[in-house]
Amino acid sequence: MDQFAPHLKNIRVANNNSKVYKDECVFSFDNPESDTGLYVSLTTFLGFGRDHVERYFNKTNHGVFLHIRREKYEVSSPQQGDGPEKKITRLAIGVAGGFDPASSKKFEYEEFYEVVILPNFVAFKWPNDELPDAVKQSVKAIIDLPSASKLAEIEALSGTWDGEVRAVSKYANDLKQLDNGIKISPTGWKCEKCDKTDNLWLNLTDGTILCGRKFYDGSGGNNHAIEHYSTTGYPLAVKLGTITKEGKGDVFSYAEDDMVEDPNLIQHLAHWGINIANMEKTEKSMLELELELNQKTNEWAALQESKGALKPIYGPGFTGLTNMGNSCYLNSVMQMLFIVPDFIGKYYENGNEFFNDAGMEAPEDFNIQMAKLAHGLLSGKYSVPPPPGSPVDADPPGICPQMFKSLIGRGHPEFSTKKQQDAQEYLFHILTLIERHSKNSLNPGDCFKFQVEERFQCGTSKKVKYLTRSELILSLSIPTDAAVNKDEVFAYELKKAEAESQGKHLDPDSLVRPKIKFFSCLESFMQSEVISNFYSSAVKENVTARKTTRLSSFPDYLVIHLKKFMLREDWVPIKLDVSIEMPDLLDISTLRGAGPQPGEELLPELEVQPPAPAMDEGVINQLTDMGFPIEACKRAIFNTGNSGLEAATAWIMEHIADSDFTDPFVQPGLECSKFEPNPEALSTIVAMGFTPEQAKKALKATENNVERAMDWIFSHQDDLDDVKSPAPPTFRDGDGKYKLVGFISHMGTSTMVGHYVVHLLKNGQWIIFNDNKVAISEHPPKDLGYMYLYERM
């Protein structure tokens, strides 16, 4: 055992506070199941694949490793073919109750250990009583302790949504229940305001039985239960027919606007004479209804191209990503980013520079994890055909970016959880992080950046004002009234209503969606908008103005986001189920803004700031209590003339998808063409200990966005002493002709449920990336996408 002598001084023993990276290599996606296994350092507890362990040794001289190999065996499930098929209760993949591609398979694992000394890879079997005590203690701790990825997952799930776990309602323990003599019979329920006999909700405060909300497809109730809440304020209701003998049931809190747990449900039901021992579940739960609604359309099958036997494709650039429990939004966005040359160049072609510069001991460095993901997706190392004789349904290859997901989501209230997320919001989040970590190098996200030009013309003086802002994504509203097949849609709706009145459902393939030409969406964006209460510096009073929006620059890559998600009039979030005729070749030259024109007279700069518009603080408080951002509440009150809660809420429902919905509110006309820091934002940053000059610099660099300004400050520590104004942003520009190279599609009724897939144009053919399944696309559903990626021609 003399070989250990030079290394014993570096051997450490991990404890409960140590991070042990024994699930995968910190610089690649090699893991214990890889052919060459995983090497875990007995000094730093970092894990390395065979491609990186020698480089780590040469850089650090840490030479002793625990070599882990794992073999997986498929075994017959004792229930396979012997019981009911597993019921799907969630419209999701890879989470409890959702679709599980491997649900019919059962695996067992066997791990093999040995202690290895570099540089000659001298190996010693484990367990081995002849090893030095320090080595034995270190190895045992590595084997026994949970891995770093497991600890990160536990941390992310702590206090957050997990599977179908619901939060306990804050009204459950002290719920008021009236003694009005009402007793509920065990059967024969009916809505007290209409003839509905299903989708009925029992209000636990006063015992009323009323129908639920109407679903987006016309089914469901007539909204009487929620109308009752708006009148009485009684918060909790349970869905009749979902109550079980165990005292469980679907409980909704109108005040908290969510499904909740009522730990006192048995007692609350007993108050109305309901004995749960006599209850049987007779109605579908809300989760089951969600799934059923989506199965009534052919969206799921169309977007996944599941009706054909797609041919798998392997090799560089065709590596799938494992769904880590509702991580399909991440998978789709990252696959799309890594067809862009700027990202390939920085993180793949130059990726080794990040590994070397980080000193091999910074596994949670952002750029390292980006480079690791790039190599995993693009090298082809993890995308190889299955060996001859493999089962037809063998799991396709792919990589599991667990370290990447944990790092990117750390500290974020949504992306740190296992909830489904909005792919558009995630794209913006990842591009923001890339910008933050590209201080001294190329920011590949610049290829998406473009400048928006807003032109205001005073209706009284006819003078004009120009403002510009930076954007990464072009979000477009969908004008449903511009459908070109209204007659066919109307006929289908009549046919569907007739079928449902008979208790039937139409064949999903007969669905007729409203068809809308993409240029109708562009025309909606280009239409001028009338602005009321625009403060004109020319006449020094509020006037009516006309606003037009154009693009001052055309990016190398244009991301188009279609606003498919919205709030219905009854506050139910819905998704527009429409078909958009997206062109393969796109010319947006008509969107080009030209700036001030000859003969135009600019509005003068303000010399004296006018008084702030009056706003009802009571209405602001009511709106913020509903969960709306305060800046959006101010914007709503102003734009409705301070005319009360109802008008303000209606405005919010109509404008909730606006790109500036949460931006600091400034009265139209008072925006400055030269930068002026938002006073509240400035005060917030100064209160954190930064100087006013530093705060102004950060706010200017981030267009008065406090959150982005704080990110900017922490990523520009070396610049804080230099309080000169940052250089204005630069924008790449060129011709306005583009070709479609990718699109992300969403299936489901809201961004919080469902599934994302991405189609990418590679080597002249369309490829579908459905998590770890990568195949040649036969019928890419270009008309059903959510986000589209266009490349300049």
TrEMBL record:
Catalytic activity field: Thiol-dependent hydrolysis of ester, thioester, amide, peptide and isopeptide bonds formed by the C-terminal Gly of ubiquitin (a 76-residue protein attached to proteins as an intracellular targeting signal)
GO BP terms: protein deubiquitination; proteolysis
Domain annotation UBA: ranges: 614-655, 676-716
Coiled coil: 279-306
EC number: 3.4.19.12
Catalytic EC class: hydrolase
Alphabetized CDD domains for the sequence: Peptidase_C19B, UBA1_UBP5_like, UBA2_UBP5
Domain UBP-type: 167-276
Annotated residues for binding of Zn(2+): C191, C194, C211, H224
Molecular-function annotations in GO: cysteine-type deubiquitinase activity; zinc ion binding
Catalytic residues (positions): C328 (nucleophile), H755 (proton acceptor)
InterPro entries, per the entry: Papain-like_cys_pep_sf, Peptidase_C19_UCH, Ub_carboxyl-term_hydrolase, UBA, UBA-like_sf, Ubiquitinyl_hydrolase, UBP13_Znf-UBP_var, USP
Superkingdom to which the source organism belongs: Eukaryota
Alphabetic keyword roster: Coiled coil, Hydrolase, Metal-binding, Protease, Repeat, Thiol protease, Ubl conjugation pathway, Zinc, Zinc-finger
Protein family per UniProt: Belongs to the peptidase C19 family.
Name the UniProt record assigns to this protein: Ubiquitin carboxyl-terminal hydrolase
